[in-house]
Design a protein that fits this description.
Helix content is 38%, strand content 9%. The chain is globular. The protein is built from seven helices and two strands; from the N terminus they run ααααββααα. The chain has a two-stranded antiparallel ribbon. With 175 residues, it is mostly helical.
Length: 175
């Protein structure tokens, strides 16, 4: 499959992530995998997706290291598709996307909700900074800046936006 990423975007983590999971069927297949589906016929029945489209998407997910293809039957040989560690690490992204969708619906209009498995109580997902626990929703408090591996184009972008990365102020533990 030809890359859809522009040359100047190759170092942008958002662009490269979208290349892996930005396709409609890919997100739905991953959602089904998080729900425990592993077999071709399970995905096909759940999603009502064509055989050729499902085959193509599964091959891409395996090639991208998000799913692993494993034989589960020998005669005839049949395979299942199991989430890899890399694939499992996408779960918070899928949860956040679903939560965003539900946020714009009345509670009675939600066809799927995230619940605590032990209590059945509905969860309210948020994305927070692991270090401080602060909600990342505020786009003025948390901004993107060029990282250590940024090339000249990325550095110029954030310099133009006035977002040079500042070094954190020394804390009491540094004194």
């Amino acid at each position: 499959m030809a890359s859809r990423i522009r040359l100047e975007d190759r170092e942008c983590p958002l662009s490269t992530t979208v290349q892996h999971v930005g396709e409609w069927w890919t997100l739905l297949i991953l959602h089904d995998a998080f729900d425990g589906y592993t077999r071709f016929d399970q995905f096909q029945q759940s999603l009502n997706i064509s055989t050729s489209m499902l085959t193509a998407r599964l091959k891409t997910l395996v090639a991208d290291g998000l799913l692993e293809r494993r034989p589960y039957q020998t005669n005839p040989v049949r395979h299942e598709y199991v989430l890899t560690e890399r694939g499992r690490s996408l779960r918070p992204v899928i949860v956040a996307l679903a939560a965003w969708g539900n946020q714009h619906l009345a509670p009675e209009e939600r066809s799927m909700v995230l619940v605590d498995a032990a209590t059945g109580e509905e969860a309210e997902p948020v994305v927070v900074d692991a270090r401080t626990g602060r909600n990342l929703h505020d786009s003025e408090a948390f901004v993107f800046a060029a990282g250590p591996a940024a090339g000249p184009g990325m550095r110029a972008r954030y310099t133009e936006l006035g977002r040079e990365r500042r070094e954190p102020a020394p804390g009491p533990e540094d004194a």
